[in-house]
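Crash report, auto-generated. Payload:
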Amino acid sequence: MRQPVLTLTTDFGASDHYVGAMKGVILSICPRAQIVDICHDVTPFQIAEGAYVIAQAYECFPRNTVHVVVVDPGVGTARRPILVEAAGQYFAGPDNGVLAMVYSRASHKVRLIANDRYFRQPVSASFHGRDIFAPVAAHVAAGVPPARMGKPIADYLRPEFAQPRPSGERTWTGSILKIDRFGNVVTNFHVRDFPDLRRPQSGTDAFVCQPAAPVLTIGRRKIASLAQNYAECTPGALFLIVGSSGYLEVSMNQGSAATQIGCQTGDPVKLTLG
Amino acid sequence: MRQPVLTLTTDFGASDHYVGAMKGVILSICPRAQIVDICHDVTPFQIAEGAYVIAQAYECFPRNTVHVVVVDPGVGTARRPILVEAAGQYFAGPDNGVLAMVYSRASHKVRLIANDRYFRQPVSASFHGRDIFAPVAAHVAAGVPPARMGKPIADYLRPEFAQPRPSGERTWTGSILKIDRFGNVVTNFHVRDFPDLRRPQSGTDAFVCQPAAPVLTIGRRKIASLAQNYAECTPGALFLIVGSSGYLEVSMNQGSAATQIGCQTGDPVKLTLG
Amino acid sequence: MRQPVLTLTTDFGASDHYVGAMKGVILSICPRAQIVDICHDVTPFQIAEGAYVIAQAYECFPRNTVHVVVVDPGVGTARRPILVEAAGQYFAGPDNGVLAMVYSRASHKVRLIANDRYFRQPVSASFHGRDIFAPVAAHVAAGVPPARMGKPIADYLRPEFAQPRPSGERTWTGSILKIDRFGNVVTNFHVRDFPDLRRPQSGTDAFVCQPAAPVLTIGRRKIASLAQNYAECTPGALFLIVGSSGYLEVSMNQGSAATQIGCQTGDPVKLTLG
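Recovered output after restart:
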């Protein structure tokens, strides 16, 4: 029998007992769970960043994986707990948009989590990760039908995270989704929406950029060289690359593009296709 | 057959091979172990902080869980390795007080770890996490009776971590137990000892504070507003809340109360109940 | 049936989805895998540091463990992916030297990873951890014979990481391998090569240094006191100790030796044996 997989994505960091407490709750309910940490270092309270992280990761997981996603500045208020079914997987988290990038990629059903029989009692006002999301997810992983948790709802939050919009002749204005650990600047221009950035190939170089001369502008910097890998460029030079998630990124070989440019998550960027 | 659960709480951080080495030792002895990281970012050498972290987490774990707790500035000296049975679970760590908050909550038995047959050989002078605590815990998880490890002792260390003490009319002086990732300031005033802070309720709002007008003083700051959740207050305003572990905390909606106040772990705080 | 063990060592950090994506790929291929994080905080692009971390950890793991090691500044270039068999275990990573400290300790066989049937498709240019190393490792963990991945090669990279060399009468020049979380300065003088540093003993003090008067020089600092554990020295005083991996270290009781000295990874050190 397959071991249930349950993942955790939070802004709880690594220095407290919060993540450990959630794992204990999960294993008390579903002893066979394989618990997988996706990321606990989402910037505190940054819902859009959490939405990005889980959206990039879930597609790699097997069917029936249950994802717990807790970036939850509104914990304890009227914001609702929800359980989402999408892409053959499950997602438990607050109804604050942190699952919105999952909705936008797959057909989905959203349920209100309402059945407190599956909560850890007493439910605290400030730690629903431990008291609601972890136990509900563990019960689902253990085989409790999602319908037991609550009724489908249609009025869940679907924030429009920044999408690129046309702003001139072959020109679009987008924004920076994330600065990653290496200082790569991930923009919200995706090859799905900008197929000119991609040329499918055989073999191992699936994302190869055409010499179609894209130019990306961030502040006063213009970056025009398109690379196929991080190492082909001169150390210290900025270049564009379609990253592993399909978004256009600004990178630097063995250096931090973000530091070099001096940009941050949320900053506007401009793409012009030649 | 249930998969044994084994947790790790250390001050080893995430940038070395230390935690990985312990996991390898555990899986070599108990291949079926489900290994769970509770926290590896205890501030180096801070025994009281480690004691707080494991005490908050263990209650969420199932019976028979084996916890390895290594915050061990005295490694290699005469300080003794111990194995504790409490609350139906097991704890392996140094006898330096890091398990003292577990003792104070549950009846317990403390054994000296003395049987070097269960150690990894040769035992180094500086890494008993790998050479003593991990292998002993793994053998216990695999079913070796704790009594095999060594005899019960009574003279284990029980440091008195700061407890609030009366310091005036309806006034107590306590201290800051921990600053968490979000900047919440966790004091050592617990609702167990100060029931006036709590009013049990039905439903999801288990910890609701009465309008009994508690006032907390830290340095020159007085905080008097009691909230039921983080989000109900004005961003930037400090407030009191009974946190998810039952301790009175000072918090700020979407900001760091600790930074705002300028306080640290160990600082004194004063509570007055109106 | 034994659960396959698969470890991860990377420079991906904890704040992105990269590690989580690899775990999802592994569990999709080998659902029974026990995935173990060794370390994700290798300094970005520091191949030698990654080589050191995996070399210290792998010996603690059981036979047939599959290690994924990704410190890969050349991802997407002509640098080759390899699968190494050594010490009864397996290692998947780039052929850039990150596995070289494993070669130097055990007889080994190195295969070119060439069979793209075992890759995740499409293979990106920048995330071979997810697209090549994780899936190949997961297939090996699931029982696919290593020979299916590709042919043995002999011209894999074997960088000579700094080795101590004689530089005078009973004097050697070496370098700093790593500064650990506690500020311990790990040098590349190993008791294997400098048996004078060691005196095997019975019981728990396996590494005891002789009063053979070693003197270590870093910059203008000379450290001459040899200790057997961290706690026996005066707080604030620097001392030498043979660390848990067998390397000579400079340490300070409850303080950071590295900060006190002002030294970094790679700095030269001089050892004189009296």
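Post-recovery validation: The longest strand of chain B covers residues 171-179.
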